[in-house]
């Protein structure tokens, strides 16, 4: 059993007492050929994402404790988020996970758990107790996947050019008349092209908001929210911005509405308002 604490993965003794709302855990189960990942209800989004990333990496390369590498090339990866335990599939996986780690365990190298009653029947017929390789984590801790660098800023769309007014057939045209004609044409343009001046949809505004956050942040976490008919997301720039967004038709309902009080959140708000 591995525990993720503030980005640090460390082994702990296999015990169901650790399966609680405050912990993020990885269990390499060689008996069931499953890498279990438990995310408690109170675990922060950055820790959850780090645990999932490390769990998938460890599933491939295993984890090493002492001379033993455990979980190398395990077949299945099962993620369990406690906050989704009202989902029948998630609830069933949680029950299977609790069953898998229950029972009496022996330990090698302090953290490698094996079932004390696990037996191998040799060809002679006598039952011989033989501890299997532990069902808990152990392998060279894999390198974390590199955090993606901030995407390059998209080029701003070119400003529309206003067609020059048609020259008057009169041989003499005063400059003042040209300026008046140009101003009138600029004022009339929106009316003529009124069909193109449309309000942005909620999804388009959400995309521009995410672009504004990415442009002014070195690291961004995003989480989709789809509960009780609400459609939206939560976006976080660690130490700078935590913003919950609900998409309601063409409107975005944001909390906090002022984006927070940091310099980065001010820059993000100004960038977003510039677009919408």
Report on this structure.
With 276 residues, the chain is an alpha+beta fold. It folds into two domains: 2-129; 202-275, no CATH class. Helix content is 28%, strand content 26%. It has five helices and 15 strands. The chain has helices spanning 45-61, 88-101, 175-192, 202-215, 263-275; strands at 2-5, 8-11, 24-29, 34-39, 63-65, 68-70, 76-81, 105-108, 112-115, 119-120, 128-129, 221-227, 230-237, 241-248, 251-255. The strands form five sheets. A five-stranded mixed beta sheet has the order 2-1-3-4-7, sandwiched between helices. Strands 12-13-14-15 form a four-stranded antiparallel beta sheet. A two-stranded antiparallel ribbon has the order 5-6. A hairpin with a 2-residue loop joins strand 14 (241-248) and strand 15 (251-255). Helix 4 (202-215) packs antiparallel against helix 5. The longest helix is centred in the middle third of the chain and has 18 residues, at 175-192. It is elongated and about 70 Å long. The two termini are 48 Å apart. 22% of the residues are buried. The model is unreliable at 119-142, 163-171 and 175-195 (pLDDT under 50).
